Structure formats: C-alpha cells, structure tokens
Amino acid sequence: MVSFRTSLRRGFDRVERCLDLAFGTDWNPLAHLGSIGWFLFWVVVVTGVYLFIFFDTGVSAAYDSVRRLSTVHWWHAGLSRTLHRYASDLMVVVMFTHLIREFAMERYHGPRWFSWVTGVPIIWFVYLSGITGYWLIWDKLAQYVAITTTELVDTLGFLGQPIARNFLSPDMLSNRFFTLMVFLHIAIPLILLMLMWIHTQRITEARTHPPKGLAFIIIVALVTASLVIPAPMQAAADLRTVPQSINIDWLLLGLYPLVEMVPSGVIWGGIAAFTLLLIGMPWIPANSGDRPAEVFLEHCNGCERCVQDCPYEAITLEPRSDGAHFRFEVAVNSRKCVACGICMGACPSSSPFRRKGDLITGIDLPDYSLAKLHDRIIEVSESPSAQVGSSRVLTLACSHGAGGQPAVARVEVPCVAMVPPSMVDFIISRGLADGVCLVGCAARECHNRLGKKWTMLRLAQQRDPYLRARIPRERVLTVWAGPTEENYLESEIDAFAARLNEMPGYENVRQMVRKDIAKASNFVSSERGKK
Ligand code: HEM
Ligand code: SF4
Ligand code: SF4
Fold this sequence. Notes:
single chain; alpha/beta; 2 domains; 5-stranded mixed beta sheet; 18 helices; 7% strand; binds protoporphyrin IX containing FE; binds iron/sulfur cluster
C-alpha cells in the first residue's frame, strides 16, 4: 500500500508540475480541488434556482416546460440547464480526484480522520442530488432512473409499501408524488451543503473559494461546453412502455446498468463495503503517529501566536491557570493535532540563543523537540556534507517535499514552518553555515496547508515571529519543490552555494550580531539602573 501510495503521490506531482506550467502555481486546479468542489456546488445552486422559475412541477407539464426552456429560452434558461448538468458532472470528477489526492498525500490518518470520514457521506449526497435531478425532466431517461432507483430501494423493504408501484402505469403517478420528487431534489442538496460545512470545520482558513482567475476559467469552460454541446433531452416518459435505448450520464448514473445485471443484495453489499472501507481507512493500518504538541506553561506568555498559526484549529486560548501574571495560556486538543510543529515555529520562546539545558519552549513536539532540532542542526553543520563547493550550506527541509541528495547537509522537519526564524538567525550568526536553505513542499500547495504562507511572511517580517533584519536575506534561500523535483532542488542549492561564495565572509554578519547583543545588554542594564 505504501509503495502504491508513493507512486500515486509522485504521479500527482508530475501532472501538477505540467499544470503549473499551464495555470501557474497559484491557479493550479489540482491544488484547489476542495474549493473548486464548493464553487461548482454554488454554480449548481444558482443555475438550479434560475431553472425553477421556468419549471412546471406537474407530471405532464414538467417535460413540456423543460422542452420549452431548452428550445424557446435556450440562450438563458436552456443554457442554465446545461450548466446545471455539466457542473454536477464536473463535481463528481473533482470529488473523486480530491479523494484520491488526499489519499496519495496521506492526509487521512490520525487526527485528519475527521475531514476524511465526513467526506464519505458527501459522495453519496452528491450522487443522490444528481439522481433526483434526472427524475424531474420526466423523459425516457428519467423514467428509467426513477423505476430502477425505486425498485432497488424497495428491495430493502423498510418503506412498508413498495414505491416502485407509483410507476406501474400513467394514472398511478400522481402530481403529489412528483412534487415529492421535486422536494427531494431541493432537500438533498441542502443536506449536502451542511455536510460540506461540517467537512471543513477542523481546518483553519479552509479554502472554500478558488482563486478568482481559476473560477473565471472554470465558468468560461463550462459556458463554452454548454453552448457547443447543449444537454440533450430524450423522448417524453411513457409508463405504458419500457424504455429501450437511452443515453445515460456515465458520471452520475454509471452504476445503473449494473443494477439491472447484478442482484440487489450484491449492489447494496458493494455500497456498504465501499462506504465502510472508506470510513475505516484512517485506522488501516493502525496509525501510531507522532505524539501531539505539548504546552510548557512556564515558557508560555499566552501571546496567541500558536493559536493563530495552527492550520488545524488544534490550539485553544484558555484563562491562565498557574497564577502567572499573564491573562491567557493555551491548550492543545490532542485529537486535532497532526504534529506538524508549526506552533513551535511560531512561539517566541522557541529561541536557540540559550544554554542547551534551557532549550524548552512554550509549545513543543515530544517526538521532535526544539532541543532535538537544535542538536540535529549542530550535528549536520559539522558534517563534511555541509560543504557545497566552497560554501557551507545547511538545508532545513520539509519531509513531504523533494528528497535530498545524500551528499547534501540536510535536516528534515515535519513542516518547514516548524523552524523558528530565530533558528535561521542562530545558524548564520553563529557561523554554522554560510547560508540556510529552507525547503518546503511544492509552491502550489503545502502539505500542512499554511506552512509555506507563514514561512514567507515570517521571512518578509510581515508576521511574528519574524527573521531579524540583521540577517542578510541573500543568505537565506527558500525552495518549494514537490517529491519529484529533486534535480531542481539540487540545482537551486548549487547556484545558492555559488552565490554565497561571491559574498563577503559571514564574519561581517557575526560582528554585526555581536554589536546587536552588546546594544541589547546595555539597554537592559540601563533599564535596571533606572529602577
Ligand atoms: C464535493 C465534495 C467535497 C468538497 C466540496 C470538499 C471540500 C474540501 C475543502 C474545501 C477542504 C479544505 C481544503 C483546504 O483548505 O486545504 C477539504 C479538505 C479535505 N477533504 Fe474534502 N471535499 C469533498 C469531498 C471529499 C471526500 C469525498 C473526501 C474523502 C473521503 C475528502 C477528504 C478531505 C480531506 C482528508 C481533507 C483534509 C486535508 C487536510 O487535512 O489538509 N473530501 N475538502
Ligand atoms: S503541531 Fe501545533 S500547529 Fe501543528 S497541528 Fe499540532 S498544535 Fe497545530
Ligand atoms: S506561541 Fe508560545 S508563548 Fe505564545 S501562546 Fe503559544 S505557547 Fe504560549
């Protein structure tokens, strides 16, 4: 399973790199599948509401109203109908691609189970919304879908009276039953909306709107496709005859031919097995996982930075409980924490400029603590591999991005934003390397959602904690590289090493730092003197 997933991940990365070239990294559709799903949902809602203005809910009038809106009003209502259908179809494609991609990126284990498991009912509600929509046109396809669906539901035997009997003859199908079908087609998408809302509840700043440019491209593509190939309509339903040849929509109704061929028990068993397999996946194989972040109150001043930076809403602000003079403290919800370490990178106490024994911060990872990161950096900086050409480069790399060459001095971290900016300062000002290379996942999307964004803002001094101005930015390189971009990463590091070689020695920087520290201690002693 692991190697299958790794191959899938690398496959996605390759395709995404091609799409990067076509759309740019910010608009890469594969990095926005969740938000595209939301966008398509709203396209379906808006076009559906518009269609309803022209739709007649009576059994005999429904077909005529759809025919009229598709012919007489083709340029607005007919276009809406095709858009409604194509957006629903695209939603199925987007949903399954999103599912497979989350699987490939292993974003379903541990505390991420919530988003995964809440995604499963979404699949069925997308299908139910589509299936009930096909009934309403009341053409031959609608007749086929209505009869096949109700016969299948009747095999469960929990509805008392079989509902398929409503379709035995024209006089048995009442306007009331038809109105119930319309009601279902409105109620089911409303439940779907609620499920989609629940689905994103454990995600900070969930992306539910694609970038405007990407949304525009999708709408233009959908409108163009709708104008070129308008949604077809088949002959009117006739309950006295059995539909012989019908064109089905393979995306939403692809399983229907199977329903006729296979016993209903097998169909229901298949649906149940598929659902249970998906629901159980976060626990197969049993996930030991890294332990959640831990708070050390004696080093926490309740500044709230970790709360704001956590991508999974796993940290809450609580009233202070230890009698310290701060208003707040923080608490980690272990069921939500994915151990990405971003909070550790955000904490002002995560400073390596202390004696080794004191390297405890406000919020830390038990399995990859600040002290361990510090020790790994020292160890790697002393290894011969830190020498790239005639410069010394230390690479701090996210474990979800490009793998490094064994020859490069590399410290792997769960997320690049786990590295506090003061650690970069420490490496350069202490002369552990001439330059620091921070490597994250591909630019289009961070595995931990916000790691790239926070890293860039911290380096640009736009978000606390930021990299101090005394560190020359040309000595810090950021590279965003997906799992299949090892060569690109290597060439970036080589070019960086060559540039570092041209720069004045880092001794200058260290002198500046010494002056800074001297200034700071003079300031502290003069403040003490005032008291
Ligand atoms: C049309 C249906 C769906 C929509 C509209 C949708 C939407 C979204 C959105 C907006 C996000 C947040 C993305 C972000 O901000 O990073 C998300 C995350 C996620 N979705 Fe879906 N989703 C759908 C179906 C599914 C399905 C069927 C599954 C799997 C069974 C699934 C699994 C996940 C997972 C695991 C995440 C969390 C990723 C993480 O931890 O970073 N989704 N989805
Ligand atoms: S490690 Fe920190 S930032 Fe990451 S999920 Fe856990 S609490 Fe949130
Ligand atoms: S960032 Fe550090 S100091 Fe600030 S609230 Fe979180 S743990 Fe406390």
